[in-house]
Structure formats: structure tokens, C-alpha cells
Amino acid sequence: MATAEANLMRKELGLLNIICIIVAVLFLGLALLNAITSPELLTTDNLFVTMVCLVMALMFGINPLLYLKSEGKLPIPFQKRLTGSESRPAVTAAANRPALLDAKGRPVPPDVRQIAANFGQTQPKDV
After folding, report:
1. Burial of 22 per CB tally in 10 Å (0-12, 13-18, 19+)
2. Nearest Cα to 56, choosing from 24, 29, 30, 18?
3. DSSP class of residue 61?
4. Does the predicted model carry a pTM greater than 0.70?
5. What are the sequence ranges of the domains in the chain?
6. Closest-CA residue to 65 (of 56, 79, 75)
7. pLDDT tens per residue, range 99-114
């Protein structure tokens, strides 16, 4: 049952991303059409319509791009990638530490874990 729900959500997400891409392309086309057909491009009205179309295209186009980035399908140039050996020390350090849980059994955030670790340390007193 869980795989069927996950498959349905993946199809819905794909459909929404396709709709967002189509709308973004339509807004880009509208901005291009406004730039081509207007006799005077640098009037206040034409610049306003062009900027509104470009901002709307950005708003609809950013969601599919962020989804592709989160899935790892969008290559980002000049981004430093961690290899398996570089990311391994952080994983082993977190695995060696016992899990700190709250009253309901949920793991606590890292900042709360750090505060709790500082409670056990004693400060040297000045004599």
C-alpha cells in the first residue's frame, strides 16, 4: 500500500512540475511577444508588463528546478561535491554518539544536544 501511495505522489509531483514548466514557458513567450510587437519597448507600461511576465516565469520555473536539485538530477556547475570518503567521518562521529531523546522519544535537535553536553562539563573556578 505504501508503494502505491508513493507512486501516486510521484506521478502527481511530476504532473505539477510539468504544469509549472508549461506556465513558465508561456510567461516567457508572453514577455518575448511583448518585446517583439511593441513599437516602443522602453515605455513604462511595456517595461512593467515585461517585468511582471519575467517574474511570473521565475516563480513558476523555480519549483521544478529546486525539485530536480533535491533529487540530484540537476548538475550545478562549480559546486564542490563530497566523495564517499570525505562524508564518512561525520557519519561515524554521529553514529558513535548515543541518541538523545526527548520525553516523547523523538531525537532532539543538534543545538539542544550541544547544550545538554555542556551541562556535564564543570568550569574551573578561579582561586
Report:
1. exposed
2. 24
3. H
4. no
5. 2-71, 86-119
6. 75
7. 777 778 888 888 887 8
